[in-house]
Each structure stands twice: as structure tokens, then as C-alpha cells.
């Protein structure tokens, strides 16, 4: 079931993503729910009331991947607005991506929450995945020398 506060919202929703790079690989999840179900994405989700952006990144990355991270600076901001076949706004997110550092590299990856799968990918591997153009742009911006 889709959360009624995010599906056909009355206002844009604030969301975050945690861009985690470790040993020249980026952490991605395979989304298990709309929007973007079946697409590889930066782990993240909605900011909860009273939660800072950094806290939201740290919580969302942990919920979706089982990894503890420390969120840092904002690296990218964009909108994701999707309309249904009647041209009504079905989803509207303002997404703020923050760079995040892996706290313990020995932790195992565990797909959780709305992630069907989770993995580490090189820039070359990312370009071959089903991924949104915006996500690819963010990753290229961060990983290119």
C-alpha cells in the first residue's frame, strides 16, 4: 500500500538520498515500491517531521541497506514530479542528496524497507543498470575525477 501522504499529495514532499562511495563504488538499492519501482536508486526516502536532513539520510540508509553512515554536505537537489494518465500529480518530491560516509565497512549489506536488493557498483556498472537519468547524473558528478 502506498502512503496516502505521498501518493496524490496535497503538497510537495521533502526527501533525501545518501550518496555513499566506498572503494570507487556507489551504494544503490533496487526500489521495491512506487515511484520508480524496479529501478536502481540512491538509498533514501521521506524526511520525518522534526528530523534533520542528516538524520533522515542516516536513518534511511540504515533502513534500506543495514549500513550505518555519517551524513555530510548537500551534493545535489532536484524534483521528481510524476503525473498519472489523467494528468493529476501522483508523486511530487523535492529530493536533497547528501554525501554520506560509511561508518563500518565490515557491516554486511541487508536489503530492507522498500529495497528489493542492494549493492555496490562501479561507475561503469551503474551505466548498465535500469536507473533514472537524474540518479546517473548525480553519481557521475560525484564519481568522475
Secondary structure layout plus pairing:
Blueprint: E1 13-22, E2 25-31, E3 40-41, E4 44-46, H1 53-65, E5 69-83, E6 89-102, E7 115-121, H2 123-126, H3 133-143
Parallel strand pairs: 1-6
Antiparallel strand pairs: 1-2, 1-4, 2-3, 2-7, 5-6
Description:
The protein is an alpha+beta fold and about 140 residues long. It has one domain (about 15-90, about 110-145): Nucleoside Triphosphate Pyrophosphohydrolase. The protein is about 20% helix and about 40% strand. It contains three helices and seven strands. The chain has helices at about 55-65, 125, 135-145, and strands at about 15-20, 25-30, 40, 45, 70-85, 90-100, 115-120. Strands 1, 2, 3, 4, 5, 6 and 7 form a seven-stranded mixed sheet that branches. The longest helix has 13 residues, at about 55-65. The mean pLDDT is about 95.
Q: What is the structure about, briefly put?
A:
By secondary structure, this protein is of the alpha+beta class. The protein has three helices and seven strands. It has a single domain, classed as Nucleoside Triphosphate Pyrophosphohydrolase (Alpha-Beta Complex), CATH 3.90.79.
Question: What labels describe this entry?
Answer:
145 residues, alpha+beta, Nucleoside Triphosphate Pyrophosphohydrolase, seven-stranded mixed β-sheet, 3 helices, globular
Strand content: 35-45%
In CATH, the topology is named Nucleoside Triphosphate Pyrophosphohydrolase
Q: CATH class, please?
A: Alpha Beta
**Distance N to C terminus:** 41 Å
| Total of DSSP H or I helical runs spanning 4+ residues | 3
Structural domain count: 1
From the 3D coordinates, which CATH architecture would you assign?
Alpha-Beta Complex
**C-alpha Rg (nearest Å):** 15 Å
Unreliable stretches covering 5 or more consecutive residues: none
Largest sheet: 7 strands, mixed
N-to-C order of helices and strands: EEEEHEEEHH
CATH superfamily, by name, is Nucleoside Triphosphate Pyrophosphohydrolase
Strand count: 7
Overall SS class: alpha+beta
Backbone shape: globular
Give the overall pLDDT as a whole number. Answer: 93
